[in-house]
């Protein structure tokens, strides 16, 4: 199935409309949504006409497409379109042979860059995609990647990603661990980040005007698009996370130099897997001294505690005391 960029945009828009139970989409509405998305992607786009819209729908219903279970519901003299199975999405469907061949061709191109500076990510991506999509014929698995298939909220990853790409404002129903009841947030999504096998969405909480609000996907109960105007982010998110271990950035916190001393037993692991990109270390017979420049947060504390008796915090003093208190509290449990 050869799909160009404009067609893919239209299919994704139609898929989203067919899944939306909060609105009836007649063919005129579907056409408007498709053309709006095309204009957002390319301001010079002339859009599509009614005939192309119905060609797209027929293709999506065909075996060459995704065999979508599309219902046509009469409303007065008109008909609106909605999936008969509301859990269906083209994003959830397996690859067909044609799509698999296209990915194989793309991987062959990517493999040419393997080992090239600035393309180190290709070394990890190629085996992951080949294994994930079953592009290598083998009787048994030969590679696995750390993941948690039972983690709640993973199905929100695609709609959040699409909302960021298409600049859509979302109404999110959310229940954090401290709340007894769920609450709603008007959310402008900007960035998705995975840490410790959990996914997080960062964006503007329009209700309290916090520009770096953090939502854990496994705490989202529902989300839907709104018609509100999307506000652009002014944050460099790569820079935002560079000074952190994990995803939590405490308010008004400052960058600090953390000095740690690791035992000789774990020193090789810390050298080969640095705890932060800023890590500088010095090794001797007594162990490994590590210096990192980060904003201290809960995730850093948890990482240090995971080394148990194999690490000592040297400085700063307030951070050293905080780790000491947590270890004492843990010791009182035994």
Automatic annotation (TrEMBL):
Domain WYL stretches: 156-223
> Which source organism?
Fermentimonas caenicola
Query: What Pfam families does the annotation carry?
Result: WCX (PF25583), WYL (PF13280)
What protein am I looking at?
Uncharacterized protein
According to the entry, every stretch annotated as the WCX domain falls at 256-330
- Tell me where the transmembrane regions lie: none
């Amino acid at each position: 199935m050869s799909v160009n960029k404009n067609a893919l945009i239209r299919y994704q828009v139609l898929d989203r409309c067919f899944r939306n139970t909060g609105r009836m989409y007649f063919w005129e509405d579907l056409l408007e949504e498709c053309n709006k998305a095309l204009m957002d992607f390319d301001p010079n786009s002339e859009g599509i006409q009614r005939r192309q819209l119905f060609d797209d729908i027929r293709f999506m219903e065909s075996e060459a497409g995704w065999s979508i279970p599309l219902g046509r519901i009469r409303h007065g003299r008109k008909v609106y379109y909605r999936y008969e199975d509301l859990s269906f999405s083209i994003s959830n469907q397996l690859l067909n042979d044609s799509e698999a061949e296209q990915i194989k061709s793309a991987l062959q191109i990517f493999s040419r860059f393997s080992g090239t500076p600035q393309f180190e990510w290709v070394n990890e991506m190629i085996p992951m995609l080949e294994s994930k999509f079953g592009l290598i014929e083998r009787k048994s698995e030969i590679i696995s990647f750390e993941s948690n298939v039972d983690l709640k909220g993973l199905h929100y990853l695609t709609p959040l990603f699409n909302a960021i790409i298409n600049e859509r404002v979302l109404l999110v129903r959310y229940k954090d661990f401290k709340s007894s009841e769920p609450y709603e947030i008007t959310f402008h999504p900007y960035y998705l980040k995975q840490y410790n096998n959990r996914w997080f969405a960062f964006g503007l909480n329009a209700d309290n005007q916090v520009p770096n609000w953090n939502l854990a996907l496994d705490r989202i109960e529902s989300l839907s698009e709104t018609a509100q105007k999307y506000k652009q982010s002014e944050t460099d998110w790569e820079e935002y996370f560079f000074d952190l271990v994990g995803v939590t950035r405490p308010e008004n916190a400052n960058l600090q130099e953390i000095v740690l001393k690791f035992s000789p037993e774990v020193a090789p692991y810390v050298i080969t897997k640095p705890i932060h990109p800023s890590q500088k270390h010095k090794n001797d017979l007594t162990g490994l001294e590590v210096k990192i420049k980060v904003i201290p947060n809960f995730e850093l504390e948890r990482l240090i505690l995971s080394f148990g008796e194999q690490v000592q915090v040297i400085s700063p003093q307030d951070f050293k005391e905080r780790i000491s208190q947590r270890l004492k509290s843990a010791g009182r449990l035994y």
